[in-house]
Structures are given as structure tokens and as C-alpha cells.
Amino acid sequence: MIRTQIQLPESLYREAKQLCEARELSMAELARRGLEHMVMVLNSKEKATPWAPPQPQALGWAGFSEEKLKSVAQEGSTEQNAVER
Known about the structure:
Elements: H1 10-23, H2 27-47, H3 66-84
């Protein structure tokens, strides 16, 4: 093992000391566990692939061909335009 020295704010030291006493851990063990956890979490985030939305699927409309769908859509838009005028 390597021996090292760190500096902590007093409030963090007090909270860590209370945690050590409550869990019957040494300060060194608490620091090791905390560092192991942070290394694991940060390494897993870097290795993870970024999220991407799923690829769209062509679901279509039952009983409609692409041409029929286009003509129905165009009919609806011309009817709506006539009503708006």
C-alpha cells in the first residue's frame, strides 16, 4: 500500500469521523472505499456509449399504399384550405 496525506475541510472531517465511529471503520478504510466507488462510477460513465433514440420503423397504414396515403393527405389539406377561406 501507498501512504498518502490529504487535506479536508473541518466540517467534512467531522462528518466522516462520525460516520467512521458509527460504522466502526477507520478513516483510511472510509477513504479507500470512497475512492474505489468514485473510480468505478467515473470509469463506467466514460466507457458507456452515449444514448441515442431508437431507429424509426416504417409502420405504414393498414390497407393504404404510399400513393393512396399521399392523395388522402392532399385531399384533406385542400378541403381544410377551402374552409379557412
